[in-house]
Write a structure and sequence with these properties.
The chain has 678 residues and is an alpha/beta fold. Helices cover 34% and strands 26% of the residues. The protein folds into three domains: 225 residues, Aldehyde Dehydrogenase, Chain A, domain 1, CATH 3.40.605.10; 210 residues, Aldehyde Dehydrogenase, Chain A, domain 2 (3-Layer(aba) Sandwich); 150 residues, Thiol Ester Dehydrase, Chain A. The longest helix has 25 residues. GO terms for molecular function: hydrolase activity; oxidoreductase activity, acting on the aldehyde or oxo group of donors, NAD or NADP as acceptor.
C-alpha cells in the first residue's frame, strides 16, 4: 500500500488510514510514485485549541531574546542535517544548486531572525514602537505605542516551489512574535517540508504547541479561525482572492497576508548596449531566473524589457546562453535546468505559453514541441526554456498571463516614460530590476516604478560581484508587493515580526507608562541614593538616578578644548562673529565639551560593574552655553536589557544636562554594558 504522509498535530503524529481522498505524489524527474497526501481524520478544532492554549502559554512565557536564542540553536541543528533534505529535494525536480537556495537559504533566515530578536528587541515580552507622545499641558498624561503577542495562531499556506524556505522565512518572524504556527505545505513538495518539521520536533528545542504540520487539505481549519488568528499565504493571485473572501477573514476578523504570483520585470537600460558589462549582466540575470528552480519562482523574470534597438541582440544572447545550460536529471551535477514539480504543473505552464502566443507573441525558442521532446527523452515533467517576443508591447497577454516555469517574454520600449508605463502594466509586482550604469536614468525610472513594486534591484558593474540577484529575497528586506502581488509583506527584518503582533496605543501617566513599557519615561519617578554605576544588573532598577554636582564653564575651558581638539569654529573663538550668528549670544562652548563635562560629572571612576560605554543616541543640543554658565547632569537608568548568553547586559541611561537657570542644555541616551553580578 502506498504510504500516506503523516501530519504533526496537537502534540503528536497522525497518519490517515487508506482513503480515496489521498492525492498521489510522484518524483518530478522519473514519474515514480512516492506517496500520497491526505489530512483525513485530523481534528481541526483540536489543532486550533492546542495552538491557542498550550502553544500560546508556552511560547509567550519566553522573552524575545529567549526566542531568539532558540532560533539560533534550531538553525544550527537543522544545518547539520541538510544532506538528507537535499536527497529528498531531488524528487521535487530541484537541482543541488537550486536546493541550496531553498534549504540553506531557509535555515539562514532563522539565523537572521535570531539576531533581530536579540539585537533589535528588548529582553521582554513587550516591544516599544516609537517614542513617547506628550498628551497634556503639564505632562501628566503621555502616550506610546506598544507591540504585544496576539492570542491566536498563524496558519501558513505555502507554495510548492520553496518547501523549506517558504516555511522557515515565515516561521522565524512568527516564532519571535510569540505566535504558534500551523504549517500547511503544498502537496507536491510536502514530504520535504515534513522532513524538516520532523527534525524540528526531534530537536526538542521548541516549546510545546509552537509548531504543527498539516499534510493535506486544511480547509476545515478555516471554520475554527477567529479574531486573534492570522493566515499567511503564498501562491497564485486567484487563490489569494478566494482566501481573502473566507468567512473567518470577512466576518470574524482573521488577519490575511498574501504574497501572490506577479509578472516581474527586468529592464535593460538604454545605455547598456551589446558589448557593455551591463548587457552581459542582464542576459545572465534573465537566464538565471529562467533556469533556477525551472523558473518556478514568484520572483522570476516574466517580462524582459529591452530598448527596441537591442531586441534582436538580446534575444540571440539569451538563446545562446540557454544552450549552455544542461537539461536533465536534477541529481546530475551538470544539470542546470531540471523538470517542473509535476505533470500538472507542466501542463499549466505549456497551456499558459500557448495562450500568450495566441494573445500576441511569437516563439523564439522552446515551447510545446521542444518540451515534449525533452519529456520523452528524460521521462519526467520537463519544460524547455522558452523565450517569447511580444508582437505588440501592449498586448494584454504578456502582462496578464503568467507561465510559472522557465519562460520569459521579451517586450520592447521606446523611452523612459514608455518603460515606466510598461512596468506598471503588471498591476503590481514583487520585484523589478533595472540593469544600467546611467544614474540619471536609474533615478528617474526607479522613483516612478517604485509604487508598483515591493523591491527594486539596480544592477551594474559596481555592485554585480556582490549582488544576490534579481530573484533572491533577503530576510532584512521586505518580500511582497502591491496590487496583483497580494498587497502583503513578509520578512523585512523587524517589520516581519511586527506584522504578527498587535500594536496598541497606551495613554497613561509617566509612572504607569514606565511600568507597562519597561522603559523609564520622562516625568516618572526617579530614585536617588547609591551611585547607579556601582550597581550590577542584579541590583539596578529602572528609575535609579544620579543628580550631579555643578560645574562652571570658563572661557579658558572653551579655548583649551578648541586648541586641544582642533575645533576652532568661529562660534567658539570669535566674539564678534559669534554674536552675529542668529543662534548664539556670543562665544559659546562646544557641544562636545558639554558632553565631555557631563561625563566627568556622572562617571564613577572606580572599577565596578559598568564595563564599557559603547555609544550615545539621540544627542540634541538645546540652549547654548556661554562662558560663566554652570552645568549639571541628571542620569537615570532608562532601560535594562540582560543578555541571555553573556554575563553582562545593556543599560540605556537618560542624560539631561541643564544650566544654572534649569534650562535644558543637552539631552541624550548613554549606552553601557554592565555586569549581571559584581
Amino acid at each position: 500500500m502506498t504510504e500516506i504522509l503523516s501530519s504533526y498535530v496537537a502534540g503528536g503524529w497522525h497518519t490517515p488510514g487508506a482513503t480515496e481522498s489521498a492525492r498521489p505524489v510522484r518524483d518530478a524527474g522519473t514519474g515514480e510514485l512516492l506517496h500520497s497526501v491526505s489530512s483525513a481524520g485530523i481534528d481541526f478544532a483540536a489543532v486550533a485549541d492546542h495552538a491557542r492554549t498550550t502553544g500560546v502559554e508556552a511560547l509567550q512565557a519566553l522573552t524575545f531574546h529567549q526566542r531568539g536564542v532558540i532560533l539560533k540553536k534550531l538553525a544550527t541543528y537543522l544545518m547539520e542535517r541538510t544532506k538528507n533534505y537535499h536527497e529528498i529535494s531531488f524528487s521535487t525536480g530541484t537541482t543541488k544548486r537550486d536546493a541550496f537556495v531553498d534549504i540553506e537559504g531557509g535555515i539562514g533566515t532563522l539565523f537572521t531572525y535570531s539576531g533581530v530578536a536579540r539585537r533589535q528587541m528588548p529582553n521582554s515580552t513587550v516591544h516599544l514602537d516609537g517614542g513617547v507622545e506628550r498628551l497634556s499641558k503639564n505632562g501628566t498624561l503621555v502616550g506610546r505605542h506598544i507591540l504585544t503577542s496576539r492570542q491566536g495562531l498563524a496558519l501558513q499556506i505555502n507554495a510548492f516551489n520553496f518547501p523549506v524556505w517558504g516555511m522557515l522565512e515565515k516561521f522565524g518572524p512568527m516564532f519571535v512574535a510569540g505566535v504558534p504556527v500551523v504549517v500547511k505545505p503544498a502537496t507536491d513538495t510536502a514530504h520535504l517540508t515534513r522532513a524538516v518539521v520532523a527534525d524540528v520536533i526531534e530537536s526538542g528545542l521548541l516549546p510545546d504547541g509552537a509548531i504543527q504540520l498539516v499534510s493535506g487539505d486544511v480547509t476545515p481549519l478555516f471554520d475554527h479561525l477567529a479574531e486573534q488568528d492570522a493566515i499567511a499565504f503564498t501562491g497564485s493571485a486567484n487563490t489569494a482572492r478566494t482566501l481573502s473572501a473566507l468567512d473567518c477573514v470577512t466576518q470574524r476578523g482573521t488577519r490575511f497576508f498574501a504574497e501572490a504570483d506577479s509578472l516581474n520585470f527586468s529592464l535593460l537600460g538604454p545605455d547598456a548596449a551589446p558589448g557593455t558589462q551591463e548587457f552581459d549582466l542582464f542576459v545572465s540575470g534573465v537566464v538565471a531566473e529562467m533556469t533556477v528552480k525551472a523558473g518556478q519562482k514568484c520572483t522570476a523574470i516574466r517580462r524582459t524589457f529591452v530598448p527596441k534597438a537591442h531586441a534582436e541582440a538580446v534575444g540571440e544572447a539569451i538563446i545562446a546562453k540557454l544552450a549552455t545550460q544542461g537539461v536533465g536529471d536534477p541529481r546530475e551535477k551538470s544539470t542546470r535546468l531540471g523538470p517542473v514539480v509535476s505533470d500538472k504543473q507542466r501542463t499549466d505552464v505549456l497551456d499558459a505559453v500557448d495562450r500568450i502566443i495566441a494573445g500576441g507573441a511569437h516563439l523564439l525558442t522552446g515551447g510545446r514541441e521542444e518540451s515534449d521532446r525533452l519529456a520523452a527523452e528524460h521521462g519526467g515533467a520537463y519544460v524547455a526554456a522558452t523565450v517569447l517576443q511580444a508582437d505588440d508591447a501592449w498586448s494584454d497577454a504578456v502582462h496578464d498571463i503568467e507561465a510559472f516555469g522557465p519562460v520569459t517574454s521579451i517586450i520592447t520600449y521606446s523611452d523612459t516614460e514608455d518603460a515606466v508605463r510598461l512596468a506598471a502594466r503588471g498591476r503590481g509586482s514583487l520585484v523589478g530590476s533595472v540593469v544600467t550604469h546611467d544614474r540619471e536614468f536609474a533615478t528617474e525610472f526607479v522613483r516612478k516604478v517604485a509604487p508598483w513594486h515591493g523591491r527594486v534591484l539596480v544592477l551594474d558593474r559596481d555592485d554585480a560581484d556582490e549582488s544576490t540577484g534579481h530573484g533572491s529575497p533577503l530576510p532584512n528586506l521586505i518580500h511582497g508587493g502591491p496590487g496583483r502581488a497580494g498587497g502583503g509583506e513578509e520578512m523585512g527584518g523587524l517589520r516581519g515580526i511586527t506584522h504578527f503582533m498587535q500594536r496598541t496605543a497606551i495613554q497613561a501617566s509617566p509612572d504607569m507608562l514606565t511600568a507597562i513599557g519597561g522603559e523609564w519615561v520622562n516625568g516618572s519617578e526617579r530614585r536617588l541614593g547609591e551611585h547607579p554605576f556601582t550597581k550590577s544588573l542584579a541590583d539596578l532598577r529602572i528609575g535609579d538616578t544620579l543628580d550631579s554636582e555643578w560645574r562652571e564653564v570658563t572661557l579658558d575651558d572653551i579655548e583649551h578644548f578648541a586648541n586641544f581638539t582642533g575645533d576652532t569654529f568661529y562660534a567658539h573663538m570669535n566674539e564678534e562673529a559669534a554674536a552675529a550668528n542668529p543662534f548664539f549670544p556670543g562665544r559659546v562652548a562646544h557641544g562636545y565639551l558639554i558632553v565631555s563635562f557631563a561625563a566627568g560629572l556622572f562617571v564613577q571612576p572606580d572599577p565596578g560593574p559598568v564595563l564599557a560605554n559603547y555609544g550615545l543616541e539621540g544627542l540634541t543640543f538645546i540652549t547654548p552655553v556661554s562662558p560663566g554658565d554652570k552645568l549639571k547632569v541628571t542620569l537615570t537608568a532608562k532601560r535594562i536589557t540582560p543578555r541571555e548568553t553573556d554575563e553582562y547586559g545593556e543599560v540605556r541611561w537618560d542624560a539631561q544636562v541643564v544650566n544654572q537657570n534649569e534650562e535644558p542644555v543637552a539631552n541624550y541616551d548613554v549606552l553601557t554594558l554592565v555586569a549581571k553580578e559584581y
